[in-house]
Amino acid sequence: MTDQPLRVALLTYRGNPFCGGQGVYVRHLSRELARLGHQVDVLSGQPYPVLDDGPTLVEVPSLDLYREPDPFRMPKRGEYRDWVDVLEVATMMTAGFPEPMTFALRAGRLLRAQRGRYDVVHDNQSLGYGLLSLGLPLVTTVHHPVQIDRALELEAAQGIRRVSLRRWYGFTRTQARVARRLRDVITVSETSREQITEHLGIPADRMDVIPVGVDIDAFYPDPSVPRVPGRVVTTASADVPLKGLLPLVEAIAKVRTERTVELVVIGSPRSGGAVAEAIERWSLHGAVRFTGRVSDADLVHHLRSASVAVVPSLFEGFSLPLIEAMACATPVVATTGGALPEVAGRDGETALLVPPGDASALATAIGRALDDAELRARLGAAGRARVVDRFTWRAAAVRTADVYRRAIAGDSC
């Protein structure tokens, strides 16, 4: 089966292309696998991913309990189909997050019923019991251990919020138990591999490191789009402590005392959250703008028009926003949280790097970049070259298909 096209079931429990990296990963990897000649079905729960030509979407519908505009909704009696639906609602009503578990049960049931349809199953971090013992080779991508998100949110929470967070992240215990039974695992950086071994107990020799990519034909610099002086852009898929938006807002307040600066946040704030309170406290309403959800074309425009892009995360297992900005030749200020230095490259050569959570260091680096046009041009050009050389979706797809073939042959890494 070395050269034969493969029949791939690529699984994601949610595929939102506008919030978080799961939808982005599935969209681009499935497209490039299809371009390599493989048959790719993407099995997804809601929100369903946006797919390009080539792969086929197979809907695995949940009760969509967290949909907008009525998240945490109670389904009507006629919506219940089976015991998995009851389990999904019961978990939500007891403050848990059911989607990884219930998606795995539904997808596993579908795959067992169509066992001859696929050569390999590729799970995008559902890590549910329902995907074990499928009778099919199973490859699993773990971007980074969600236990890190849990720890950072608990550190920032107080009172009853800590209790609810512990319950919400209860699914991570199941994921850890399932992970230890997996043989063929893909992760996106050496840093993630180390953290996965520490938090999930997967031996390092069971994991292949395959960096994700960026569409360099869509994310590229355009000299006809002028850089707006003082404009800083950041992408926050969620307003949570992990993403480091709070220290960035504080940094913007510091930079603003000496320069004209505007922060454009690709994302939405949490109503009444710490970031919204900080914007109010430092009177930054005119200096911080949230875009909400944006299209790929609008995202590219925001990156091209910014003077500086910032990735302020406290931890990242990789960072799509980082390589998207670098691909657009936008100079980057990033923290050293997790795999960010591994992705961004050397401090002062392809990006400016600062310690995570340090608002003063962020402010200094942002100010340095805004004040030095030559530095911005040099960082932007070097960043673009690094991405083109190292981080493309085609390269990720080729290496992923190699893992599929090894899993089918029964050889672990």
Characterize this entry briefly.
Helix content is 41%, strand content 14%. It has 413 residues and is of the alpha/beta class.
Largest sheet at a glance? 7 strands, parallel
Along the chain, the helix and strand elements come as: EHEEHHEEHHHEHEEHEHEHEHEHEHHH
Uncertain stretches of 5 or more adjacent residues = none
- Helix/strand structural class: alpha/beta
Helicity, as a percent range = 40-55%
- CATH topology of the largest domain: the name is Rossmann fold
Strand arrangement across the biggest beta sheet: 3-2-1-4-5-6-7
Global morphology: globular
The CATH homology group name of the largest domain: Glycogen Phosphorylase B
Assigned CATH architecture of the largest domain: 3-Layer(aba) Sandwich
Query: Terminal Cα separation, in Å?
Result: 18 Å
CATH class of the largest domain: Alpha Beta
* Total of helices: 15
How many domain regions?
2
Count all strands and give the number: 13
**Arithmetic mean pLDDT:** 95
Radius of gyration: 21 Å
Fraction in beta strands: 5-15%
Structure notes:
The strands form 2 sheets. Strands 3-2-1-4-5-6-7 form a 7-stranded parallel beta sheet. Strand 12, helix 12 and strand 13 form a beta-alpha-beta unit. The chain has 15 helices and 13 strands. It folds into 2 domains: 225 residues, Glycogen Phosphorylase B (Rossmann fold, 3-Layer(aba) Sandwich), CATH 3.40.50; 160 residues, Rossmann fold (3-Layer(aba) Sandwich). The longest helix is centred in the C-terminal third of the chain and has 18 residues. Helix content is 41%, strand content 14%. By secondary structure, it is α/β, with parallel strands linked by helices.
